[in-house]
Amino acid sequence: MILELPGKNILEVRALHKTFGGVVAIGHVTFDVEEGQIVGVIGPNGAGKTTLFNLITGFLPPYQGDIFFKGKSLRGKMAHSIASLGIARTFQNLQVFTNMSVVENVMTARHLQSRAGIFGTAFRMPYSRREEKHILEAAMANLDRVGLRDEAFAPPLSLPYGKQKLVEIARALATEPTLLLIDEPAGGLATHEIEQLARLISEIRGGGITCLLVEHRMELVMGIADRVIVLNFGMKIAEGSTEEIQSNEKVIAAYLGEKF
Amino acid sequence: MPRRKNIAWYAGCGLLLCAVALMPLVAKSPYYITVGNFIGIYGIVAIGLALLLGYAGQVSMAQAAFFGIGAYTSAILTTLTEMNPWLALVAGAMIAAGTAGILGVPLLKLEGHVLAVATMALSIVIYTLFVEWAHLTGGYDGIGGIPGLSLFGFQLKSDLHYYYLIWACVVAVFVLSHNIVHSRVGRALRSIHRFSGGSEMAAQSVGISPAKYKVQVFMISAFYASIAGSLYAHWIAFINPEPFGVFISILMLIMITIGGMGSLWGAMVGSAVIVLSGEFFRDIVPKVLPGAAGEMEHIAYGMILVLILLFMPAGLVSAPDALKRWRARISQKSDWRE
Asked: H or E element: which one contains A64?
């Protein structure tokens, strides 16, 4: 595993605070993510987990507090710039591009690794054509990583829900991130599929990518996470190893208030 | 899908090119050449709109403005100064693209109906400029005596000369646009087209700036429309504000809707259908209803649009698919009865 900052924090969230009207969506949340780890973010429905992701990735400005990625502040940065810094994500409500094939979805994500613009593509300049070949190769390689090579040319909507989620993961990986935010990848998956997903995420981490994982399915989170952060009503109520979290009274109480 | 071109596709294109090139020789009258010129000129504008609306999903009624900017820039520069018409054409295209680039930044922050109305306002403003800036544009009287274009010393004079120039431009614009669409840029455009299956959020998450691409494609569509306008000005040799009103923008939208929105072929098909049906209507209606006057071809446009939206909403280019599905449904029905 090749780390950029061994032992250091790749992500530091400091007193992050976001309200919608009078409602506190994220209440003064502070935590660190060490590079090379898989960190789980759990909490009852409505706890603010996806809001947290949206804040980190720049989709919900403005906010109070600060977010540091590799030591640099993300405040005020637009979502696509944050992506170019090396943070990739998947979406809880699936935002696959349904107007193109699976492989084209992943090829689109090679945008940052390529540069041919209107002129280069219009006139099919040699550098543009070479780039296009590389883009296709990289996209197929990322589809291989998630096991979707055979479905490369299919329209995404023809795939089962679980595989569409894998398309999103392949797409996120194609941006060559150092931090990957995965939002509820196990939703609607069967047990054996969750085992495959756990292996996949561990492999991703093995490749040097830090993973922040929002998930409801405890088998997945408790199985692979190095650390777990628990949110409830927008506040961090607990943080620790999977054993510590599982025996934490506040966590149990928060979940007892919700049937899952 | 990554394009796997085959012989059939190239052969088909080759045949079409031959048909276009040979049409004037088999045409029964010079009238067909004139019609062909209009189809070509409007087709260039429609291709730009197909990129903007069909691929990137931005509703724009500003095409008339850019079409007009090209025409008037060419006309003014070649009549008031003695500028080389080709330079004037490039100047017009730069002005149009520049306007699109500057105004596009605030305009394209809007969406849907609001964007449509805002771009319509742009067309109205530019039209008003053409009318009111009379010392430059001649107002309602327009500008006459626009010099023709010349190519490598050969002076283009007749409709036929302009036919080949216009269609050469159509082919060039089509090929360039086709290349753009089947590339990294094309994927970026599709990724932000939220009504056809794209997602601006997901596009941003992979590093694509929707704002940047919207403005770029807006500029391309302005560039194309301006070139078409310049060609029109030099061919007809006379322009006034009338052909550059908001209605042209609406006509362009109708063209790509009829032809098929997310398709460059659709833009050309739409242009041909609109121009031909307009001519046909203008021809037969006075014979059926003697004394009928006014712009009755608008009735034709409206009827065709409604029919397409009812029976083939994806446009005429989807006809092969629609036919396949219809035949599948028919054979299913008969299987069921057995």
From this structure: strand A64-69
- What is the complex's ipTM, to 2 decimals? 0.91
A91 inside domain = no
Residues on chain A touching B220 (C-beta within 8 angstroms): 118
CB pairs under 8 A between A and B: 112
Counting beta carbons within 10 angstroms of the beta carbon of residue B288, is it exposed (0 to 12), middle (13 to 18) or buried (19 or more)? exposed
Residues A81 and A134 placed together within one structural domain of the fold: no
Q: Are residues A254 and A198 in the same domain?
A: yes
pTM of the predicted structure, to 2 decimals: 0.91
Residue entry with tokens 């283009």? B156
Distance from CA of B317 to the nearest CA of A (A): 17
B186 touches chain A (CB under 8 A): yes
Q: What is the dihedral of CA B201, A175, A181, A16, to 10 degrees?
A: -70
Question: Given an 8 Å threshold on Cβ–Cβ distance, is B190 in contact with A112?
Answer: no
Cα–Cα distance between B252 and B250 in angstroms, integer?
5
Same domain, residue pair A12 and A81: yes
How far is the CA of B265 from the CAs of A99, A157, B132, B281, B318, in angstroms?
Answer: 18, 26, 37, 24, 10
pLDDT, tens digit, for every residue of B27-50? 888 899 999 999 999 999 999 999
Give residue B174's domain range: 27-270
Least Cα distance to A169 among A135, A197, A134, A206 occurs for: A197
Q: Give the count of domains, chain B.
A: 1
CA distance A93 to chain B (A): 11
A203 and A252 share one domain? yes
A190 & A256 share domain: yes
Least Cα separation, residue A147 to chain B (angstroms):
20
